[in-house]
Amino acid sequence: MRVAVRTLGCKVNQVESDALVGMLKALEPVVVEPEEGADLFVINTCAVTTTAEATARKEIRRARRANPEAFIVVTGCYAELEGEALKDLGADVVVPNARKAELPKVILEHFGLPADPVTTPPHEFWGAGERGLLNDRVRAFLKVQDGCNAGCAYCIIPRLRGRERHRAHTDALAEAEALLRTGVQEIVLTGVRLGSYAGHPRGLAGLVEDLVALGAKVRLSSIEPEDTDTALLEVIARHAPQVRPHLHLSLQTGNDRLLKLMGRRYDKAYYRDLVRRAYDLIPGFALTTDVIAGLPTETEAEHQETLAFLEELQPVRVHAFTYTPRPKTRAARLPQVPVEVRKRRTRELIALAHELAAARIRPKLGTRVEVLVERIRGDEALGHTPDYYEVVARGRGEARPGDTVWMRVDGIREYTLLGYVEGVKEAGRTVALPVV
């Protein structure tokens, strides 16, 4: 059975797509690229912005044109938002987030196969558990949280993902152990609101320490500033670089009035202090963040304040988004900044982001950096540093995926470090055969 999966949006969606294919072993799936022709085509959609919605619509139409006979299943946040209307675009079945646990049953029954019970955590943690496709990966996502209770004024995600649910740490650690046995080296903890994780007696910091004790390298995906406490910073500092010294702390705006209006639970002073503590505590700390241009009622002076605050923070990477009103959110009812002004402010944020990235990456020239090798391309080793720079290293020698190597940096290409391998710091665990 030729199976194509197109995943849009967040890392949580990626986890869930991986898990789905792992649950379809009865189909004997051969995963193909979307353009290669498929019998089953799954599109896991995003709806965080109107751009994400447009991308989802385009992908559904494209899938139907390229695969006229395929069984096309659309799921994810846009499916939650639009429901059966997506059949008009080419979907055969639409499965919203609230019914994602039914995906294996829907698909297997369509192909005339019995929907045997699937070993998977409870319904609210569908997408965790069996991970059939991850046996050949060096890095793996581990979903430990879903949903959001925050209710930011501009955000539709609580409506699409529901209330917060937290996976028991015993379940999470059991899956982590299984991933490590397959040869996975780095586990990326993920969730819709990861920092709120309450499935461990000591919260996210406790879970990270337990993963370290298993021997895993640990990276955190995006986390909210107000959820990032000193205990977590100290755990990262104590175990870096095994716990990766990189945090993606969502800023959204550098103006206190707008932070309060948008329902954010921190102010500039809190964010500034948090970042300073991270720099002080964590060796080699790297900050990435995201900002939204043109939030409702944003003035030009407030936009300039955000630019100035980013210059003060010196992040290595800034993701800038143009605000788009989301249905049934409080922000959508507020006075809106003209679209062209929003777009111009986005361009200015992106230009600053490039300047800041260049300033932060330039000092890496000539230094020796640690790299987790994820892929081999000819004589090159490809991977990431602990502080999340992409790497292309020449002269890989005997280095294999899963090894940690030293690379001397002798070049830069945008956000990527270029160089040559100087030696192996740590050999990766032997990759086990896939579990049948």
From TrEMBL:
GO terms for molecular function: 4 iron, 4 sulfur cluster binding; aspartic acid methylthiotransferase activity; metal ion binding. Residues 1-112 form the MTTase N-terminal domain. Keywords: 4Fe-4S, Cytoplasm, Iron, Iron-sulfur, Metal-binding, S-adenosyl-L-methionine, Transferase. The keyword Transferase applies. Residues 134-360 form the Radical SAM core domain. Its cofactor is [4Fe-4S] cluster. GO terms for cellular component: cytosol. InterPro entries: Elp3/MiaA/NifB-like_rSAM (IPR006638), Methylthiotransferase (IPR005839), Methylthiotransferase_CS (IPR020612), Methylthiotransferase_N (IPR013848), Methylthiotransferase_N_sf (IPR038135), Ribosomal_uS12_MeSTrfase_RimO (IPR005840), rSAM (IPR007197), rSAM_horseshoe (IPR023404). CDD domains: Radical_SAM. It holds the Pfam family UPF0004. GO terms for biological process: tRNA modification. Residues 362-423 form the TRAM domain. The keyword Membrane does not apply. This is MiaB-like tRNA modifying enzyme. The lineage of its organism: Bacteria, Thermotogati, Deinococcota, Deinococci, Thermales.
